[in-house]
Amino acid sequence: MIIRLFVAMLFAMTISSYARAAYEPGTMGYLYADCAAALENSKTPKEFLNTYCGGFVEGYGMGVLVSNNLPLGEPNEKDPCYAEKKKEYKRIEARLCKNLPDYRSMETPPGVVFRTVAETVFRWQEQMKTSKNMAVFKKPVEQEINNIITPGKFCDSLAKSYAPQNEPFKINPGLLEANWYAFVKSAPVTLAEKYEECKTDLKKGSFARTHCGAGIEGFLSGLYSTAHLQNRQSGAGGCAKEIDRFYQSLDMPGKMCVNKSTKPEEVGRAFLSRVESMKKQGQSLKISGFGGAGYQSVYFGFMCQR
What we know:
Elements: H1 2-10, H2 28-41, H3 45-49, H4 52-67, H5 82-93, H6 110-130, H7 141-144, H8 153-157, H9 173-177, H10 180-186, H11 191-201, H12 211-223, H13 240-249, H14 252-255, H15 264-280, H16 292-299
Helix pairs in contact: 1-4, 2-4, 4-12, 4-16, 11-15, 12-15, 12-16, 15-16
């Protein structure tokens, strides 16, 4: 599961032949175009993560991890609702596309992961072109990006063989050769630095275009990677209420008081409040800030205190 979540985080690192200027920040087209430039021009992991695309990827990876940290366990066979619960547990365990690339070893060279992920997303883009569904690039990223990593038509298509006719991406050799695992583990940015960055970005004219705004957009998008679980028919019989309550407990966005109309600016301001509260309590801000703006404000319930 961890390997697949790591791959899911990298799905945001893709390319598009469309100019970023043609799309609004927060749309699939804007993200794709920015990622194209970031992947080609960034020589190091640090350079990449300092881009809009890098900020989104950082937040998205953390959001996917949080959303998929579900309290699952085999139902008790003596439970009168065992059969109904077993069926739902199997559905929940299959929440990510089973046909995603799966690297068993964390020692897999990042270059291999990058290339496989880019090729997979290129397949998705080709499917959009074939179906003439190009309007998808104008849609909010949190509504569309998870269609690449969750069960559905595209997931089914990944089971079929595929050979791209063209090289669908350009990735800087520096990114392919870098030790990404060590870099991410070292978490070079502190919470204090994230705070100063977001404080500055919130004063800018378009927060959605900033690095902090991208990180928050990414976290919210990743948090919705399990939202499709809620699209179901309520159970029947005496087990219905119990199963409904279980699904309610899995509604991560609902539990954390965010929805698809939540603005990154709202989360940004909540993040500042979160860090200022930590300061008053004497907590260290030298801890890892990886995924911090979205994670610290949303996961710890600060959006519920507004």
